[in-house]
Amino acid sequence: MALNRQTLQAWMLAVRPRTLPAAAAGVVMGCAVAWRDGFFRLDAALACLFAALLLQIGSNLANDVFDFERGTDTPDRLGPTRVTQAGLLTPSQVKAGMGVVFGVAALLGLYLAWLGGLPIILIGLAAIISAIAYTGGPFPLGYHGLGDIFVFIFFGLAAVAGTYYVQAGSTSAAAWWMSVPPGLIITAILVVNNLRDIENDRKGNKRTLAVIFGERFTQAEYLLCMTGAYLVLPLAAWLGIVSWFSLLAWGSLPFAYRATRAVFTQKGRPLNAALAGTGQTAFVFSLLFWVGMLF
């Protein structure tokens, strides 16, 4: 029994539940716009939500095992415990778990493909491949400064517009515009992660943008992502794409301010608080945006 409990705890560490609310943000935004336009479908919304959560879990498992195999994760790691590096689970166990998670996500994808057709199949396949290729494969995206753009594409554009598409059967200007804020905020999560790990990544030859351009650039990138996410709303409202009630999402600014302040005043392990705060910002932003769409 003790062994089973320990194994369960190890898997919970590997899954990293605290990353999941941020993964849901894009789906929530897409559902909010679909609700406003009269296309909301609970079945499609739930399928998109669970698929997004499974893709995030699968990505977490892939990063855990592939960073370990590449020698990037060391005992000096400043982030949350990685189970492969800590010896809590073997690489083969984590890879098997990754396969199961992506397999279940693919099954959900079949239902979404039935609703949305070929575009959803392509998005789903690209999302799984990118999640694995972020740290795995012959050209790991995260090791060549490409992580930020791929996070923006899949957690912003694909998540919001894709969620809207499977409910409405098409996309809209509002769906594309509202894909930008969660994409930017969730990209900012990666930016904090890379800022925290800049020295360790440099030693491991993981060439993130933070490693390539340095600390000041990374802080500026974070600020640009967070500021841009909030400024999209009044611009879209001024253009008549969404209502001014969408600015209720600005109620998440206290979370954003605390996280941003930490990015500019902290280094190393204390940045874990900024990491969590940025994830909270993404989720609260999307929920408050949906509240604004009710008016």
Describe the protein in words.
This protein has 295 residues and is mainly α. It has one domain. The chain is 75% helix and 0% strand. It contains 14 helices and no strands. It has helices spanning 2-15, 20-36, 42-69, 83-86, 91-116, 118-133, 147-168, 173-177, 180-196, 198-203, 209-213, 215-238, 253-265, 271-293. Helix 2 (20-36) runs antiparallel to helix 3. The model has no long low-confidence stretch (mean pLDDT 94).
Task: Give a brief description.
The chain has one domain. The chain is 75% helix and 0% strand.
Q: What are its keywords?
A:
mainly alpha, 295 residues
What is the average of the pLDDT values?
94
- Number of strand segments: 0
Order of helices and strands: HHHHHHHHHHHHHH
- Give unreliable regions as ranges: none
The rounded Rg comes to 19 Å
Tell me the number of helical segments per DSSP (H or I, 4 or more residues long): 14
Structural class: mainly alpha
Largest sheet: none
Query: Portion of residues in helices?
Result: over 70%
Percentage of residues in DSSP E strands = under 5%
Distance between the termini: 52 Å
Count of discrete domains: 1
Shape: globular
Which helices and strands, and how do they pair?
Blueprint: H1 2-15, H2 20-36, H3 42-69, H4 83-86, H5 91-116, H6 118-133, H7 147-168, H8 173-177, H9 180-196, H10 198-203, H11 209-213, H12 215-238, H13 253-265, H14 271-293
